[in-house]
Amino acid sequence: MSLTASFDVKQNVLIVRLSGELDHHESETLRSEWKKMMHKNNITHVILNLEDVSFMDSSGLGVVLGRYKEVLQLGGEMVVCSISAPVYRLFDMSGMFKIVRLEENEEHALSALGVAS
Amino acid sequence: MKNEMYVEFSSISENEAFARVTIGSFVAQLDPTMDELTEIKTVVSEAVTNAIIHGYNNEPGHLVSITCTLDDDAVELTIKDEGIGISNVDEARQPLYTSKPELERSGMGFTIIENFMDNLEIISLPDNGTTVYMKKQLSKKTVSK
Ligand SMILES: Nc1ncnc2c1ncn2[C@@H]1O[C@H](COP(=O)(O)OP(=O)(O)O)[C@@H](O)[C@H]1O
Ligand SMILES: [Mg+2]
User: Fold this and answer.
1) In chain B, what is the straight-line distance between the N-terminal and C-terminal CA atoms, in Å?
2) Disulfide check for B73: which of A5, B20, B31, B141 has CB 3.0–4.6 Å away?
3) Chain A contacts of B94, Cβ < 8 Å?
4) What torsion do the CA atoms of B74, B111, B92, B50 make, to the nearest 10 degrees?
5) What's domain B2-143's superfamily in CATH?
6) How many helices (H) and strands (E) does chain B have?
7) Between residues B69 and A116, which one has the greater pLDDT?
8) How many CB atoms lie within 10 A of CB A45?
9) Is A28 in a helix, a strand, or coil?
10) CA B124 – CA B54 distance, rounded (Å)
11) How many domains does chain A have?
12) Phi, psi of A49 (to 5 degrees)
């Protein structure tokens, strides 16, 4: 099972929806697509929807951390939403929730960023 | 009863998913919980990825091997490469330590393995490859006791 990524822009927010397994092999394509979407659109914040991610390891964390650093430089915030139990554990163990905000779903994430959905 | 398998494959990133799925189906016969299965797949992914990107510097022409032993309700995994090895294992085990920050590595691989498994041993010498040995006792035994 591979990874699919879809992107959506709402005002100054880039929504990234992932589905499948995010490991080192999948991380390289995701990184370049995600970076391209951030630079092509005039965005400040990122919402990462992990609802359909069935597997993630530390290579996936690396990609998320890399984009977090870029969002920070844009003066924005990264919000993660719809996270599954196993991915939640991975994020929690790695201290990710100290830096990224967690919301229940995309709608909550958007309103947390002041965007009406 | 003891049950053992051995698999060896090329050092290419496509095989990271192959390795997790293969070990996952072998371990499935012990009837692990969903959490335990995820933990085992995750540590296989971590160690195999390390062999490919660190051990072999992302060069495709090498081999990574996995031995998996099921002994009652314990899972033992030995993941091996013949790559560059690790000069300072204690440093490598530190959370957030990575020798390849330019590849956006998180440096959390060994920390995750330590959290998900009961034992982790890293046997490595510079230019002499790396052997990662891990063991996990599945919960079934303790529950039925
Ligand atoms: N098989 C290996 N061969 C050589 N070096 C390794 C191997 N596995 C791990 N290392 C070293 O240990 C460090 C920490 O590994 P890890 O915790 O998985 O973090 P990351 O993979 O994100 O760098 C690596 O950056 C690398 O220097
Ligand atoms: Mg690693």
Assistant:
1) 18
2) B141
3) none
4) 70
5) Histidine kinase-like ATPase, C-terminal domain (3.30.565.10)
6) 5, 5
7) B69
8) 24
9) helix
10) 12
11) 1
12) -95, 115
Contact map slice: A 75-114 vs B, CB within 8 A = 86, 90, 93-94
pLDDT tens digit sequence for A43-83: 999 999 999 999 999 999 999 999 999 999 999 999 999 99
* Structural domain containing residue A82: 3-112
Domain coordinates of chain B in residue numbers? 2-143
For residue A117, tell me if it sits in a domain: no
Alpha-carbon distances, residue A47 vs A6, A38, A71, A100 (angstroms): 12, 12, 11, 10
- Listed in sequence order, the residues at least 6 apart from B60 whose beta carbon sits closer than 8 Å to its beta carbon are B10, B11, B12
Q: How far is the CA of B51 from the centre of ligand 2 (A)?
A: 9
Q: Can you read off the two tokens belonging to residue A52?
A: 């359909």
3-state secondary structure (DSSP) of residue B10: strand
Given CB atoms, is B113 within the 8 Å cutoff of chain A?
Answer: no
Predicted structure pTM score: 0.96
